[in-house]
Amino acid sequence: MNSFEKGQEYIMNTYGRFPLAFEKGCGMYITDEGGKTYLDFVAGIATNCLGHGHKALAAAIAEQAQSLIHCSNLYWTKPQAALAEKLVQNSCFDKVFFCNSGAEAIEACLKLARKYGGKTNRYEIITMEHSFHGRTMGALTATGQTKYQKGFAPLVPGISHVPFNDFAALQAAVNRKTCAILMEPLQGEGGIRPADVEYLQKVRRLCTDEDILLIFDEVQCGMGRLGSLFAYRHFGIEPDAVALAKGLGGGVPIGAMLAAKKCATTLQPGEHASTFGGNPLATAAGNVVLDELTGGLVDNAKTMGAYLREQLLAMQAEFSCIKEVRGIGLLQGIELDVPAAPVVKACIEKGLLLVGAGVNVIRFVPALIVEKKHIDEAMVILRAALQ
Predict the structure, then answer these.
(1) Which of 81, 191, 208, 288 gets the most CB atoms within 10 Å of its CB?
(2) Cα–Cα distance between 214 and 156 in angstroms, integer?
(3) Nearest to 96 by CA among 302, 299, 282
(4) How confident is the model at residue 2, as a pLDDT?
(5) CATH superfamily of the 3-53+297-386 domain
């Protein structure tokens, strides 16, 4: 049996997988077990920011694996301290908590918010409709899409949802029990929908005036993807905490919560932890990613993001089925007036990996190393799939 067949036999059916089994990749391309090569515009769902087979990343992982993979957070390690320093020095935050995934980073943010609000008997958290924050129970409750929550009731109490980009609705939902507002500055799974700058400015003022924590979920939209190291920089808004993952490790599992001074010391020893969080192997990878991002890759994401958007807008003018082009940087989407799945399937058959973001939206999240020639190649395949 090949990996596809073995997977069907032995792995739980929790993913809507394509009938593809990959074994290697190089740069922007990934090759399946049958030897067919694909242009990868999924990048592990906005995770493989340095592409496949990145030499410096692979070398750092191999070197670290030979010296120390794990020793637990009962002790300090050089890679973890170095990555924390880089994240703090390149952001508006003061402290870092490391974990293993985006959902774990969101859970840390939820606990931070509850503990911060607890001193004044506040515990309610407001999130946005159409948001996506993860699959663990807290993150699932925070997610503003009922399709993900079906069958898992009762959910975590004290979390409510309001329409995205609607300040009046948010302001009306805030009460004396509200301790935090959690949102993606650009909704990913919800259809590639950016927040309005004016809206975020009002939210920031509201949170400041009411001593409510403003928490950004940058799991997908952070780490250079919008053309700035952190997504909040694009909007000119500084949150009190942020959840990171995906691109932070370039494909190695790692997550992080960063917090500003006002709440950075809220969680004390014994109140939150992660056995594998920020271990030497994962943070060795994260250090390479941060070095690459701050060394010019963020600028490439901004430039190539603008070029990708330009090409998608040209495609919209050519095909009436494209209703709208949305996104920032290298997190772009096209909304169709037909289901996206058949178009994605046709692109895969022609050698281009894409992923949906809801029923009618196709998402474009290539590695941040993408070049114009790769975007041009992707547009040729997309055009053929739409015809």
Answers:
(1) 288
(2) 20
(3) 282
(4) 84
(5) Aspartate Aminotransferase, domain 1 (3.90.1150.10)
Residue 101 has a pLDDT of 98
Domains in the chain: boundaries? 3-53+297-386, 56-292
pLDDT digit string, tens, across residues 82-126: 999 999 999 999 999 999 999 999 999 999 999 999 999 999 999
DSSP string, 49-116: TT-BS-HHHHHHHHHHHHH-S---TTS--HHHHHHHHHHHHTSS--EEEEESSHHHHHHHHHHHHHHH
Q: What is the residue type of 356?
A: G
Rounded to 5 degrees, φ, ψ at 233 are: -65, -35
The packing angle between helices 280-292 and 55-67, to 10°, is 150
The token pair that represents 144 in the structure block: 């503003």
* Interatomic CA distance for residues 328 and 313, integer angstroms: 13
Q: Which helix (H) or strand (E) holds 46?
A: helix 43-46
Six-digit token string for 199? 């809206």
Spell out, as residue ranges, where the chain has pLDDT lower than 50.
none
CB 362 within 8 A of CB 354: yes
What is the CB-side half-sphere exposure of residue 340 using CA atoms within 13 A?
18
Q: In sequence order, which residues have a C-beta less than 8 Å from that of residue 146 and are 6 or more positions away?
A: none
pLDDT of residue 4: 86
What tokens does 43 get?
């990048």
DSSP string across 157-175:
TTEEEE-TT-HHHHHHH--
Q: What is the pLDDT of residue 1?
A: 78
Q: Look-up: residue for tokens 């087979």?
A: 53
Element (H, E) at 336: strand 331-336
Name the residue among 325, 317, 321, 329 with its Cα closest to residue 385.
321
Q: Which of 279, 285, 281 is nearest to 71 (CA)?
A: 279
Determine phi and psi for 257, rounding to 5 degrees: -115, 125
Q: What is the DSSP letter of 383?
A: H
